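Follow-up to my earlier ticket, as requested here are the two runs.
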Amino acid sequence: MRHRTVGELMTRDVVSARPDTSFKELAGLLAAHGVAAVPVVDATGRPIGVVSENDLLRKATDRPETGDGPSPMPHLEAWERAKAEGARAEEIMSAPAVCVRPEWTVVEAARLMEIHGVKRLPVVDAADRLLGIVSRRDLLRVFLRTDEAIREEIRRDLLAETFGDAAREVTVEVTDGQVRLEGAVASRRLVPVLVRLCRSVDGVVDVREHLAHDDAGPVREGPDI
């Protein structure tokens, strides 16, 4: 079973900035290229931070109020004010850059995004030089796989190659990414293992099983296969 990698999904034509890129130039880069963020790279091409629309918008929150009404924006924290007062990429960017390698899987990249609360990750090579950038939208592309491609992967890689004779009577149908397993397996303990592995296939949304088995007793989580 093969997971899609970051290298397959990332955007290779990356718009980047240098540490001394001005605020106005940064805003122009985002607008001209229709992107929500740009990595900031040093002289060797290594990402040192990321400037996003949110980073730039802090400048608007630091403007003095006009009129008599209260400001609609909350009071800025010290680190937010420092960024709002910045004029160059190195002063505005979120740093350090949280990066990922091209051989990482979609699951690994998604977990890293979740842990750090970021929406995109610069992709770097073994020398930490920028290769591309991968976003949440890029990772969601695995769910655009066709039902037939998902069905064939489960049938070939799981049922035939991994489980073999133990699942020879199992059939699989996929509709809108939802997998339905029917038939019979050799042992009750294989049911949760098969379901878990099906859930790990790229593009699978949900798995439902209606599987018979020979042995009795409660279903227990079987060993990995």
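Run two:
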Amino acid sequence: MARHRALPLEGRIRAVLVSWGTALLLALAGAEVAAASEPVLRVGVVDGAPPCSYRDAGDWQGLSIELWNRIATREGLPYVVTEWPSVQEMLEATRTGRLDVAVGCINVSPDRLARYRFSLPFQEDGLAVMVLQSRLDLGRSFLAALLTPTLLQLLGGYLLVIALLALLTWAVEHYSRQPETLSHGRVRTFGKVFQVLATGPGSNTLVITTRGNAIVLVAYLVRIVSASLLVGYLTVNVAREVQGTAAGRIRSESDLRGLRVGVRSGTVSEALLKELNAGTTGPKVSILPMASIRSGFDLLVSGRVDALLGDNLQLSYLLTHSELNGALPSLALQGIRPESQAFAFASGLPQATAERIDLAISALKRSGVVSSLRQQATEPVSAPAR
């Protein structure tokens, strides 16, 4: 019988290395084939909707853009971005198969839910109405805050405490026997003590005893605390009165009838105004389409529109990021018809890909990434340090 000779040690090592190298090449080739088989998603975005999606210095930014970037990176989804003129046209593109994913803070309204396919919602938001306050409104609001019973009670309480401290000072320092009292009279002298304790300057001349100095110190503390309470009260109530002035004119969305209202085309806000116009025989809303939410603020300041209607998040962003230049904008209404917001999917998007995106959204919501992105998108931009 023929005998097989065993391979030398070097030959066996070479054979093992060759087999390992072949397996590695096959694995790499399989990975490249798998990567090549991953479809490139066509993603649509809309400009002019900060803080959700907008272009800044040529780059796409915003809450929804950043969220999509994290999802695509997490799931390894290749994609290309195209810009669309309005949300409505972008949604139609997903329905007809020209887009795979529409990215933005897209409201999932009942009529849209019946026509389009959406991802798992990542946040909820309502609509808001922004109006412009005049300086006359601010003056009236300040006067109204001054005439409230609570403010009169605060002032009365302060003056009463000072009067008691003045009486105590009068007794401790024996003002009834002092030469100044005898020459100027009791009423005039007491009035001086009261005035000095109430205002502060000259209080070191009122007393000479230890107990008298203690009373002056108490009066100082009363002035500090009372001043803080009065400033805080006026600040809160003036702001409340300004808000009340705006809300006094617009208490619900139906009060927009007869006004010129700016909205972005193809949005739920525009659909709401069209619904108002279709449901009444009275004054109609004059709908003025806006290219972007920022341009709407310029229209409001210049007086070409009476109000802006848009997502609560977007109008709040305007209040903190726009150059006011003396303007006094205010949100007259907030939280109108809150709805979930999500991405839109093409009807032909593979179910497996849609599920991967939904699971990524769920994981990013649970880990706090979505709420963190929302906070970063709306916080005021601090001035650079010099």
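The only thing I checked on run two: The first strand starts at residue 41 and ends at 46. Let me know what else you need.
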